[in-house]
Amino acid sequence: MTIPSDRVSGEDLEVWASAAPDGPVRRRGPASSRTTPPAGAAAPAAGAPFPRASSPARDDYQGCFGCGGDSPSGLRIVETRVDGTSVEAEFAVRDVHQGAPGLAHGGLLATAMDEVLGSVAWRLGGRYVTGRLETDFLAPVPVGATVRLRAWCNGVHGRKAYVEGEGRIGAPDGPVAVRAAALFVEVPEEHFTKERLN
Ligand SMILES: CCCCCCCC/C=C\CCCCCCCC(=O)SCCNC(=O)CCNC(=O)[C@H](O)C(C)(C)COP(=O)(O)OP(=O)(O)OC[C@H]1O[C@@H](n2cnc3c(N)ncnc32)[C@H](O)[C@@H]1OP(=O)(O)O
């Protein structure tokens, strides 16, 4: 398998022990050039308060599909540890999250990554939305499993924050089921109000 060297850095590549007949397969990591910080990107700040002035960020807002308690089929992601801008979180895969019978739908796993990576971005101190989200699905996740999420910021460049993370099955050192890299873009407060229909 050939990996275009202009698309990924050396750190993005991993050698995967594989039973493939031609030996170990080199697989691309989750980050493409569009989700990799450019040279000169700043290191993330140590962690800043959420800018809670905007209405979707109210302390009592429970409508989020990822983390809110008001969404009956929501993921109900709970943050378990925050260290600066890095976040650990978890959620339980329920019947309503199925794709194939008994297994989590991939789109919901991508949603979980969007949520936890977004939480990292908001800890930079601005209001951020997802501009691009790249996801690798590495193992099926059974209904009933707890997915342990971990996410961190690789750098900030102007309005752009480069965030990465992973989800493991069952335990913090369990098998990696999903990996993601994203570009979050800082937006003004009006972003969350100007297009609303209700
Ligand atoms: C959101 C939650 C709020 C509640 C918070 C509660 C408290 C916190 C608790 C918990 C954490 C939150 C967790 C949330 C998690 C979920 C997050 C989501 O699902 S967000 C919804 C989905 N995303 C959108 O709806 C964006 C839709 N897109 C847009 O609005 C625009 O396209 C936007 C803002 C992304 C960019 O538009 P422009 O006009 O402002 O700016 P331009 O110039 O186009 O882009 C700026 C820079 O970014 C690059 N860029 C933009 N999109 C890119 C892309 N897809 N790929 C690569 N680069 C991109 C551009 O090339 C440009 O770069 P150059 O400055 O020129 O270097």
TrEMBL record:
Official protein name in the record: Acyl-coenzyme A thioesterase THEM4
Entry EC number(s): 3.1.2.2
Entry-linked CDD domains: PaaI_thioesterase (cd03443)
Region (Disordered): 1-57
Localization in the cell: Cell projection, Ruffle membrane; Cytoplasm; Membrane
Membrane spanning stretches: none
Entry membrane topology: Peripheral membrane protein
Keyword Iron: no
Sequence similarity: Belongs to the THEM4/THEM5 thioesterase family.
Catalytic activity: (9Z)-octadecenoyl-CoA + H2O = (9Z)-octadecenoate + CoA + H(+); dodecanoyl-CoA + H2O = dodecanoate + CoA + H(+); decanoyl-CoA + H2O = decanoate + CoA + H(+); tetradecanoyl-CoA + H2O = tetradecanoate + CoA + H(+)
Domain Thioesterase: from-to ranges: 102-168
Alphabetical list of InterPro entries matching this protein: HotDog_dom_sf (IPR029069), THEM4/THEM5_acyl-CoA_thioest (IPR052365), Thioestr_dom (IPR006683)
Source species of the chain: Actinomadura yumaensis
Pfam families, alphabetized: 4HBT
Chloroplast in keyword set: no
Key words, A-Z: Apoptosis, Cell membrane, Cell projection, Cytoplasm, Fatty acid metabolism, Hydrolase, Lipid metabolism, Membrane, Transit peptide
GO molecular function: hydrolase activity
